[in-house]
């Protein structure tokens, strides 16, 4: 799928300023801004997952009956489906329920003798007795009985006799289901247009909800061809994976309706199906394939689909070349839905998106919104081959599907927008981001065992940062050490060989190995052996280089050095590590670290030579050095920063902070890496520093460290603010894409540290807007930061104004900026009222509820209110917001991430105990991780508070 949740990675940034004389005029932080930078990573879930801990329900069903198993028996194989569905866009007058009715015939082959038919079906009511007919000469055995097995979600049919191996049968069912607003299976989305309520029927099948739309063999390897027909109200449009081939008026059950018949699909998996009925508008390009963008009529007429239409063709053609494979379908539809739980979904030929992931407005969208759209489109288009044409056999290999798309989305977006230099940003968005999670003892390997991923919740839990971001990082490393031509060649033969079929991840390794053998320079080990170490064991190494002795060694990097790794590894937590490195800026031959320790003469350096390893952070590991080399690197940053690649300036900061957390270097060394920023204007190092400072704010924004820290950060950012003042006078936007991001950083941080020239600017803009709401004078890029600052400094009047603008926004990304900024309020009653709104779908859409609660928790004043709110409402949240979403882990991690006291730890444990009867669903592991994290935070604060306080006090004086 396309990424889970709308969660920004830097939600925690800078708390709201109060006390310390800072006055509330000080406009705060922008919790929100991170969403603005929009790297699509904000979509990715941050939960972690492990296969050995914490399932709430036993993995194996208590009995051995086939219908108690979560996996289908290997007895029947579907070939064809004929599906007819009729979603009703008005509620049933007697029950008040929105429903759909349908019928389905599936032709399957019997491959093992059986008298039992198990076919997935969830929350469907059969409206007629199912029937079975034989396609061959022997008649089908009659039914003994049929029933629904609700737990394992099967329609169970017992037959009087056996089915014959090799024969084909056709099972016909007629059924009814609810078209609920639960964001899963066949569901409904609602919006208002010209004061009128509109209903859209749409689907989200991945991973296991096709069975909520019609009875089907709902496993990815059960590929079949689908004939789809939709019945719908006159005047509405029906869409599905195939092209419409017939649209006629007809009468069904006495009702006059339109019938749309779709071209047969290719052989495909059920989770990639999509059915949509709407009265949306459309724009299209009649090229081959045909490209269409659908959205609310207002959105289309105001041009919000134009950018997507512009970039889709070029990205599609880029991937055709990259994969050396023609786009397999005659059309590519993309549609923006008002309610959608993930970021987007790669349904074959009919990709569904959240509005913010597809719709762009020249006047009001930021460059971050634009980047997000380009990368998500690229991600979904990449799946049309990798995932859709060739599909992993089972969900345990999800990481390869999602990791791959998360890697090549950068290549696709780069092709569409070469000026952005977006490929570099994978280091911030994915590599650094997932390092933080993968360095925990409770992390998990990329690959899981098939038998450990059975139940729908277990499958859902796999959609996490490890699968997406570590998957992407490791594949990027692989592509780099193979070289891109070798990587793409192996990829191309893999796709060719397995088209319309299923694979396991080692099939890709085998094809890459063939490419190496054919054309590549030899590797020190086979592809598979190298990759086993990255895929089968969790975590990653820290490589330590001693420039005095030339010793290079590796060690499993753990953020908390006291944590205990319980998970065994066949490889002893050692990796085969490719090391690209430079000495004083001069490139040297890469080195492979294949053992725990090696000695290399060339890694020795004299007193004025610095060594820097993991150039451009293509390797998935951190690097540590002897103190002398660190000092030389610090010096190089200050005196000749341009001799260090921009990505590595960010790396030095991020590695130093994390090594300090792991107690491998002094915290003061980490803080020293930020000193040179007073002369840095590049985005990546600034962003790395601010990300790491976030943690300091989370831990210290309620303590006496806060004042001196603010003073230091304020001094650091002032030159950057002045740089952009000179460059743009704040009436313009900076030229480059990442410069625009850093311009926002400058404003956000300068304002949050109380720089008068910044706060007055922001206040003026917002007041101007309040005076004349129809003309927004704030530059789109700056809006998130400005809104947040103004709402933090303001009261009910500002809040209510922003709320009204939120409710009336016609552009989803504008609404989103306001929604997040509303959480920046500093009055507890405003925040409490806002928390109440999050559980009222008329006020905050269900898709945004957890993100909003997390936004509030990121505000230092909102933190405890959000925690109280979640505790008080857990049962309700769990039941109402459980289906169709993967957000519980994010919610729990989000509301607890500032926890750093014994008292908070006790509360967390109490919460776990109090709700053990209700459960935590996909957030089960997040509870354990929050406890682990809180424990580590308590220790970290204890160890570092004094020295950090002193360092900030001194540095603020000398800088
Ligand atoms: C299916 O049947 C159950 C039990 O009779 C009922 O509660 C539910 O509303 C029905 N669903 C639909 C969509 O009619
Ligand atoms: C599906 O539709 C095609 C024509 O579009 C038809 O040839 C085929 O028989 C149909 N399949 C089934 C199972 O009815
Ligand atoms: C789409 O492309 C057209 C033609 O190149 C261009 O004029 C227009 O500005 C583009 N629209 C967007 C939103 O990028
Ligand atoms: C692309 O595929 C074609 C046909 O399958 C093949 O002849 C050609 O060599 C391939 N090109 C590359 C670059 O692999
Ligand atoms: Zn995806």
UniProtKB/TrEMBL annotation:
GO terms for biological process: peptide catabolic process; proteolysis. The keyword Cytoplasm does not apply. Residues 307-534 form the Peptidase M1 membrane alanine aminopeptidase domain. GO terms for cellular component: cytoplasm; extracellular space; plasma membrane. The keyword Membrane applies. The active site is at 380 (proton acceptor). CDD domains: M1_APN-Q_like (cd09601). Keywords: Aminopeptidase, Cell membrane, Disulfide bond, Glycoprotein, Hydrolase, Membrane, Metal-binding, Metalloprotease, Protease, Signal-anchor, Transmembrane, Transmembrane helix, Zinc. Binds 1 zinc ion per subunit. The chain crosses the membrane at residues 12-33. Residues 50-62 have a biased composition (Low complexity). Residues 78-272 form the Aminopeptidase N-like N-terminal domain. GO terms for molecular function: metalloaminopeptidase activity; peptide binding; zinc ion binding. Gene3D superfamilies: 1.25.50.20, 2.60.40.1910, Neutral Protease Domain 2, tricorn interacting facor f3 domain. Its main location: membrane. Its EC number is 3.4.11.-. It is a single-pass type II membrane protein. The record marks 468 as: Transition state stabilizer. Residues 41-69 are annotated as: Disordered. It is found in: Cell membrane. Residues 610-934 form the ERAP1-like C-terminal domain. Zn(2+) binds at residues 379, 383, 402. Its cofactor is Zn(2+). Homodimer. Belongs to the peptidase M1 family. This is Aminopeptidase. It comes from Triplophysa tibetana.
